[in-house]
């Protein structure tokens, strides 16, 4: 992604400024502006669905994943995440456990054909095991290193291809945790 520039795009307005009304209620967004017309080779980019109700956390994840070349969609609730997942094909879903409507564990069970990586501040042994039981291939505890997120997801997907979900779980949590 050499030659790419980072641009901040701020959507805001009071209503009298002539701004598009659909943009007034949107949170700030970060987007990457590439040095070619296509924005890179989109045909081979990994697709990630980030389901996270905290706007700052979703933005942080999206920014770091896009910077690493991932194609990212975001949802702020479990229902929205399920809707996007059913409408598109994603390589992995990065899923918050505590969402305003459906819990992340419930959402994961409704996504049996898509690898799920949980992202949560809930760090107890019971929560991590519940994530595994719900079908998660990995469980990232907040706070985490957002810069390392793309590499971790890439490694998860590579290990998933080699050793299946149990292989990823062993990679992250050791052989006794399968």
Summarize the structure.
By secondary structure, the chain is of the alpha/beta class.
Can you characterise this structure?
With 178 residues, this protein is of the alpha/beta class. Helices cover 35% and strands 20% of the residues. It has five helices and seven strands. The termini are far apart. 28% of the residues are buried.
Calculate the terminal CA-CA distance, rounded to whole Å. 37 Å
In terms of per-residue confidence, which ranges show pLDDT below 50 for 5 or more consecutive residues?
1-26, 31-42
Query: Class by helix and strand content?
Result: alpha/beta
**Strand line-up across the major sheet:** 4-3-5-6-7
The average pLDDT is 83
Strand content: 15-25%
What is the global morphology? globular
The number of helical segments is 5
Order of helices and strands: EEEHEHEHEHEH
What is the secondary structure topology, with strand pairs?
Elements lengths: L4 E5 L19 E5 L13 E5 L3 H13 L3 E5 L2 H10 L4 E5 L7 H6 L6 E5 L4 H9 L2 E6 L7 H25 L5
Parallel strand pairs: 3-4, 3-5, 5-6, 6-7
Antiparallel strand pairs: 1-2
Key descriptive features of the protein:
35% helix, 20% strand, five-stranded parallel beta sheet, alpha/beta, disordered N terminus, 178 residues
């Amino acid at each position: 992604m050499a030659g790419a520039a980072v641009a901040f795009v701020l959507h805001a307005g009071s209503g009298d400024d002539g701004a598009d009304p659909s943009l007034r209620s949107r949170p700030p967004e970060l987007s990457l502006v590439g040095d070619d017309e296509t924005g890179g080779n989109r045909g081979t980019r990994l697709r990630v669905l980030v389901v996270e109700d905290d706007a700052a956390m979703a933005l942080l994840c999206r920014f770091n994943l896009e910077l690493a070349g991932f194609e990212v969609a975001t949802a702020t609730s479990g229902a929205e995440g399920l809707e996007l997942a059913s409408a598109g094909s994603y390589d992995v879903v990065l899923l918050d456990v505590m969402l305003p409507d459906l819990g992340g564990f419930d959402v994961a069970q409704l996504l049996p054909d898509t690898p799920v990586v949980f992202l949560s501040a809930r760090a107890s042994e019971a929560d991590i095991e519940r994530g595994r039981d719900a079908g998660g291939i990995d469980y990232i505890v907040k706070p985490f290193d957002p810069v390392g997120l793309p590499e971790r997801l890439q490694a998860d997907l590579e290990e998933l291809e080699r050793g299946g979900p149990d292989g990823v779980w062993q990679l992250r949590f050791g052989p006794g945790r399968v």
